[in-house]
Structures are given as structure tokens and as C-alpha cells.
Specification:
single chain; 98 residues; alpha+beta; uncharacterized conserved protein from methanopyrus kandleri fold like
């Protein structure tokens, strides 16, 4: 399975932006607000599950958009499904790792 990822560094934080390939550059509506899943935030390269598992070992924050990548994070116990938002027909999660 392939996902779009980009790692951001802000001060001493490492942030993983991850989304499903099929939602990249699409817009979704949430509470009368349009949300665009932009390449500038979510795409630096493609990564498979094994590569993502390595990156997840030392990130502080995960911003995930898309049913497949959020389900992957649920399966790896990074987020509980009850804490996942639905935006349009897609799942979204922001996870802070302490």
C-alpha cells in the first residue's frame, strides 16, 4: 500500500503529514468550510507501510487524511477510531505523541 508523505520540522518537533494518494489535491467540506489536501503540505514522496513504520518511531505529531492511512494508523494503535473525524467521506486524525 502506498501513501503520500511529507515530514515537516518546526522548532524541535517532527511532524508527519500523510494522506491517501487518491485524496491529494482534492477538496472536502466540513461544517461549511472547504479543506484542500494540498501537495505543498502532504507530498514530498510516496512511502509504503514499512517506510512509514520507520518514520513513526520518532515523530511528535501525525496529521493523517484518508481512509486507508487512518485505518493503517488505527491498526498500529497510534489512534483510536473513536477519536477520528469524518470530513466528507474521508477519515482525518491529528495525533500528538508524548
Amino acid at each position: 500500500m502506498k501513501f503520500c508523505i511529507k515530514v515537516h520540522y518546526i522548532k524541535n518537533l517532527k511532524i508527519l503529514a500523510i494522506c491517501d494518494e487518491e485524496v491529494l489535491e482534492k477538496e472536502f467540506e466540513f461544517n461549511n468550510t472547504k479543506i484542500k489536501i494540498s501537495k505543498s503540505f502532504y507530498f514530498e514522496k510516496y512511502a509504503n507501510e514499512n517506510e512509514i513504520e520507520e518514520i513513526l518511531k520518532d515523530v511528535n505529531i501525525i496529521n493523517a487524511f484518508g481512509n486507508r492511512c487512518v485505518d493503517f494508523l488505527i491498526s498500529k494503535k497510534f489512534v483510536n477510531e473513536k477519536n477520528v473525524l469524518k470530513i466528507g467521506n474521508q477519515k482525518h486524525a491529528i495525533i500528538q505523541i508524548l
